[in-house]
Design brief:
6-stranded mixed beta sheet; alpha+beta; 32% strand; 204 residues
């Protein structure tokens, strides 16, 4: 569940862990606050931290990883009849079906958030660098579409596991509900109660 409220975006993990981890993106201050509700801990990651992290990934990655996931050669396709965007390389394919935005500013707001949350997610162990996702986000924004479904297919070289497919479905609503506002308010209270720790301690 992702809630946009002014210059702040609140991202809640769904399912059983909905109350455990919350991500707050403070757009105007250029930072993420990660909240672990169970341990009552929080940590802050700035945009500069994420940029530096990805620069380290680039410098330490093997030539094979760089060619596949850091500087991939990507093809882009758009099917206007189905509103489908495809971004693909030999090793990774994103296919997204979009819907028009109710308000044009929502396109750029979502695009900005999607790029930065992709950078944040790339810091988590086992996740891919965000560069192919950047291209998907760019093409979607160019076509003035919000994602309804996104499917990512990665070709793997591990023995016994050749293809990995991940799919997400998005339900978009254009107005915050009272429940949403209460969730935002309670997140602010929780943030004030949590102890600030380093990124490394938080991820332990």
């Amino acid at each position: 569940l992702t809630l946009f409220n002014g210059n702040t975006v609140y991202d809640f993990l769904s399912g059983e862990q909905v109350q455990r981890e919350i991500t707050v993106f403070d757009v105007s201050r250029g930072r993420f606050v990660l909240i672990d509700a169970e341990r009552k801990l929080k940590t802050t990651l700035t945009k500069d931290y994420l940029i530096n992290f990805l620069e380290q990934v680039k410098s330490q990655a093997s030539d094979d990883v760089v060619s596949r996931f850091v500087n991939p050669k990507l093809d882009q396709k758009f099917n206007p009849s189905t509103q489908t965007v495809t971004v693909s390389s030999d090793h990774l394919t994103y296919q997204a079906t979009g819907i028009p935005a109710k308000w044009d500013p929502a396109i750029q707001k979502y695009h900005h958030f999607a790029d930065w949350i992709a950078r944040l997610n790339s810091t988590r162990i086992g996740n891919l660098p965000p560069y192919s996702r950047f291209e998907l986000n760019r093409v979607m924004a160019k076509q003035k579409l919000m994602p309804k479904t996104i499917q990512r297919t990665v070709m793997l070289d591990r023995v016994g596991l050749r293809k990995q497919v991940v799919r997400s479905e998005h339900s978009i609503h254009w107005q915050l509900t009272n429940t949403d506002r209460k969730r935002i308010s309670s997140t602010g209270n929780l943030m004030a109660e949590c102890r600030e720790v380093s990124v490394n301690e938080f991820w332990q």
